[in-house]
Amino acid sequence: MPPGDLAAALAGLSIPTNENVLVGLGTADDAGVYRISADLALIQTVDFFTPIVDDPYDFGRIAAANALSDVYAMGGVPKTAMNLVAFPLASMDPQILRDILAGGISILEESGTVLLGGHSVEDDELKYGLSVTGFVHPDKILANQGLMPGDRLILTKPLGTGVMNTAVKAGLASDKQIVSITALMAALNRDAAAVMTRFPITACTDITGFGLLGHLAEMVVGTRVGVTIFSDRVPLISGALDFAGMGLVPGGAFRNRKFRESMVAMDADLNPALRDLLFDPQTSGGLLMGCPKKRSQELVDALGAQGIADAAVIGEVTDRRRGMITII
Ligand code: CO
Ligand code: CO
Q1: How far, in Å, from the CA of 135 to the mean position of ligand 1?
Q2: Mean pLDDT score, 207-216
Q3: What's the 48 CA to ligand 2 centre distance in angstroms?
Q4: Which of 94, 107, 192, 263 has CB 3.0 to 4.6 Å from 64, enough for a Cys bridge?
Q5: What is the CATH number of the domain that holds 223?
Q6: Listed residues 140, 174, 199: the one ending a domain
Q7: 1 within some domain
């Protein structure tokens, strides 16, 4: 749904809650967190969508990596999952569904998550995803707000899956590009999350449908910090800038920009293709985390040592221009 619409639909409704809700609907966080005891809390999240790649098995892998990501973004470890399926039984070969589910299961196995069940409905349009439950220590929850002046912002995956998928649909992406973006979208944020536990991370989110700047806006809106993004240091998928320059930009990027442009200041001479990539909706994107400056290079090196070679410092947190994102 376009950003803001679900929040608008919920506005004014009284949401059931109690003192064990540690992270609820109020903060636009990646997932909800519920305390079970002094040293254990549940993380719950759910995500599903229509196919974004042609291969059913790959679609299953990507949907599962995407659904698991919100648990990692909160600093947790996924434990159990349930399938969510909408399938056009009358018009589609059931083998396609089997392949999608097999792809999802392969990623659950990789992440050490068990599949407990699921729910399916017949629908004109195929959709697949998962609800995921994870564990976290109540004192170790990473929320999307909490950035401190002086922090550096680190992003773990390059941007541009929305633009690249648009190029794939237009028949313009090479086989090599398709293979590499599929691997990127199916890559778990597990290893990045494991590295985070060794650093004094102040805030974290994963980059999905609202794009880098949409999710960053949620990290700073209403806070006492501002952020500066070093646009030339943001990792981009190879080829994405060219495709964006050709106008292969998904509609979601424009909706994301319209929704948050009042919070973003950028140079008039910023390359419009780069601007579009900063708002490009990502599928199963990377983690975006804040870390004190003095540990930030060590963090990037540790991520690199885990094979997360695209991880980079892309910005800094300031106590100026509060609630604003400045692109330089
Ligand atoms: Co998320
Ligand atoms: Co999500």
Answers
A1: 16
A2: 97
A3: 9
A4: 107
A5: 3.90.650.10
A6: 140
A7: no
66 and 186 co-located in one domain: no
Residue 250 near residue 163, CB atoms below 8 Å: yes
* Cα separation, 168 vs 93, whole angstroms: 23
Q: Minimum-distance ligand to the CA of 218?
A: 1
The rounded mean pLDDT for the chain is 96
Strands ordered across the beta sheet of 40-49: 21-23, 32-37, 40-49, 127-136, 77-87, 114-122
Distance 268 CA to ligand 2 centre (A): 32
Pick the ligand that lies closest to the CA of residue 30. Answer: 1
Looking at the structure, do residues 62 and 197 belong to the same domain, yes or no?
no
What is residue 25's predicted lDDT score, i.e. its pLDDT? 86
The β-bridge relationship of strands 325-327 and 264-266 is parallel
Judge whether residue 150 has pLDDT over 80: yes
Q: What is the whole-number distance in angstroms between the Cα of residue 67 and the centre of ligand 2?
A: 7
Residues whose beta carbons lie less than 5 angstroms from ion ligand 1: 30, 70, 206
What are the pLDDT digits (tens) for 185-208?
999 999 999 999 999 999 999 999
Strands 151-155 and 264-266: unpaired
Residue 120, strand partner residues = 85
Has residue 60 got a pLDDT over 70? yes
- Ligand 1 centre and the CA of 98: distance in Å? 27
For the chain, the first-to-last Cα distance in angstroms comes to 30
Residues 167, 316: one domain? yes
Ligand of minimum distance to the alpha carbon of 206: 1
> How many Å lie between the centroid of ligand 2 and the Cα of residue 143?
13
The whole domain housing 167 covers 152-327
Q: Can you give the pLDDT at residue 18?
A: 94
Q: Are 9 and 17 in contact (CB under 8 A)?
A: no
Is the pLDDT confidence value at 3 over 90?
A: no
CA distance 149 to 154: 14
